[in-house]
Amino acid sequence: MALLDSDATVDVADLMQDMGDRARAAARAIALASTETKNAALAAIAAGIRARTDEVLAANARDLAGMRQRDVTVAYQERATLNETRVEAIAQAVEAIAALPDPVGDEMAAWERPNGLKISRVRTPLGVIGIIFESRPNVTVDAAALAMKSGNASILRGGSDTIETNQALYGAIAEGLESVGLPADVVQLVPITDRAAVGALLTGLNGTVDVIVPRGGKSLVGRVQAEARVPVFSHLEGICHIYVDKAADMQMALDVTVNAKMRRTSICGAAETLLIDRAAAEQFTTPLVQALQDAGCEVRGDEVVRGLAEGVKPASEEDWSTEYGDAIITVGVVDGVDGALDHIATYGSSHTESILTEDEAVATKFLTECDSAIVMHNASTQFADGGEFGMGAEIGIATGRMHARGPVGLEQLTSFHYVVRGTGQVRPK
Amino acid sequence: MALLDSDATVDVADLMQDMGDRARAAARAIALASTETKNAALAAIAAGIRARTDEVLAANARDLAGMRQRDVTVAYQERATLNETRVEAIAQAVEAIAALPDPVGDEMAAWERPNGLKISRVRTPLGVIGIIFESRPNVTVDAAALAMKSGNASILRGGSDTIETNQALYGAIAEGLESVGLPADVVQLVPITDRAAVGALLTGLNGTVDVIVPRGGKSLVGRVQAEARVPVFSHLEGICHIYVDKAADMQMALDVTVNAKMRRTSICGAAETLLIDRAAAEQFTTPLVQALQDAGCEVRGDEVVRGLAEGVKPASEEDWSTEYGDAIITVGVVDGVDGALDHIATYGSSHTESILTEDEAVATKFLTECDSAIVMHNASTQFADGGEFGMGAEIGIATGRMHARGPVGLEQLTSFHYVVRGTGQVRPK
User: What is the ipTM for the molecules in this complex?
Assistant: First the structure.
């Protein structure tokens, strides 16, 4: 696939529809490919990436030169930068995905009817996945490998800043697919930087795209959620809460809260709000705030918190619904577990929340009544991750209630159908 | 809720948004209601319907008088007509739904991580379901009961021809909900006949509606699929296929084919196309066509079929993708199971297909490679039904690949979340 110039005369709608049609045609080939064939393709892709290291790094250098000429932050450039170690890590990630169990064909449930019909629910691929991401080149390969292993065709639309890097990596993907007899169209990379391509993909391209997975910041995900005419697996933000109940173990509360906020502040499972039970506010607030501050965290608080602890800035209304992605936390006092549930329902993002308590009944109430994708008891919200859940790899975290929720791993990229085996049964009457 | 006149000055968008907001508020109440409370509400609704039989029949008579004044077919009027027996059947259907197991809170999967975290996947309600249906008054109650039992709020939009009947039935629903302390807004009935209400509902009402379920003919479902901005559980049509392989048992092929087509011709699981393996066409075509004709079915066929059997009309290209819903079938000869799979992929509607063969390898190939919601071996396609699957009741059949596929019963009206139980685990590094 040649790199098209964005200035060239190209009908974006036609180009994208053609990609959709080719993806739909290729979807049947990958859906029916054996586990061995898919794993052989993934192994070939990993080998191809290693063999193309120089080419990939040269393309990446050209992308970075372009970014330096434009208004691009150093942090952004850093995320887009590859080196030999990072290219090797990309290849290894593909091998790790090849090593995961193949979900396609799994029997999810099976039962027999009184008339002897044997019914089972069997995993099938979803079809065609559109993946829209920003300028992290590793996503190109990671997303393609996850989609392939789960039997799906994919259309990748990466950030325009790394299009040359993505093209170089894509060369290895196409070659790896073809080396085992699969069509290269099982994975396609949008070859133009025109933003209209994203709009076209979000229409679903006349039913050829089954689901969209956006990977990137809030503005990208927000646009996708607002415009997509097909289902989207995504989370707009992760405003994760820790609730410290009056029956919490103090040392556990300190350890888990500091870990949930500070282990890595930029991941979506990082805690952004700490809620403390009013019945134990005097006991818990000072040590919790102190421990967070000692770990380098800025603490913003409501009036009660500011009255109990030192060095706490006032929390604005906006703070309660802010995903900082940084060493900042907002701390508030609530009226027990019901107050915590109300607060989370009002300000949360349905991502991940954790209660700290030794009271099993209170924990069960929280776990039952909190309508977030992941609810935890006595554990750090930083465990909100497909790898930590044992899924091996994830394409992202979803906060919607349809189809996939929580970490989106290989199983969540599948659908199912019913298989009915009979011996000549006819329906009476 | 008063019956609003469609000529009255009412801002449809405002009215519908208010319904969406009230549904979202009521969704939490029904999501957290115990099985006992939900069953008590359903029992009260069934009793209320019986108690209001006279009122319901009077409202139905007014609806029917209106239909007779308009351009409404007799068959359509018949479907909309209630009598004492039909009202009693509606009440009994609610009691049958009350007797089904409650899916909310079910543990779908559970596992433990090496760090001791116990993770489970637990069923939760979906949220708010928008149900759009034509003039079968039993759907009003049936859909509301299924949504309630699965912990969901619902907004019902029935056909304008039976709005008075629906209002009378809705009175029993609202009263039943309130009698057990649940808000009446758990089920709402759109009180206007303005078609703009459907358009508003299809937008999702600013995120307050999670899924739309249309129940009705192809034009209704087609409009919903084209316009909806939220997920839809539906099938546009059921073009179901029977494939008779060369290794089929002749008597079984005759019995199953006639049953699949003729038991009831109007249901979506009725067969519309019969495909016969070319390798056995001479042996099977004549008796199969004869059996269908003897059962009163009109047979249309391709050239080979017309050459082998008497009284077969020529099949047009359109016939292969037509859901007759009537005693008509199209019969064609294909090149083995691969030919059948290709034909179904080209002309099918991804609903239900069945292979008749004694060859297990061929059956497995068909069941694996056919991408329809339900695939069968040696069984009648008329079993494509939630009740026949043992689900107890269904709100419809879905042919999409997202979330629900095949019969949509109580479980398919739920989502899930992850519950993580720890003992103070923090994430390392």
Answer: 0.94
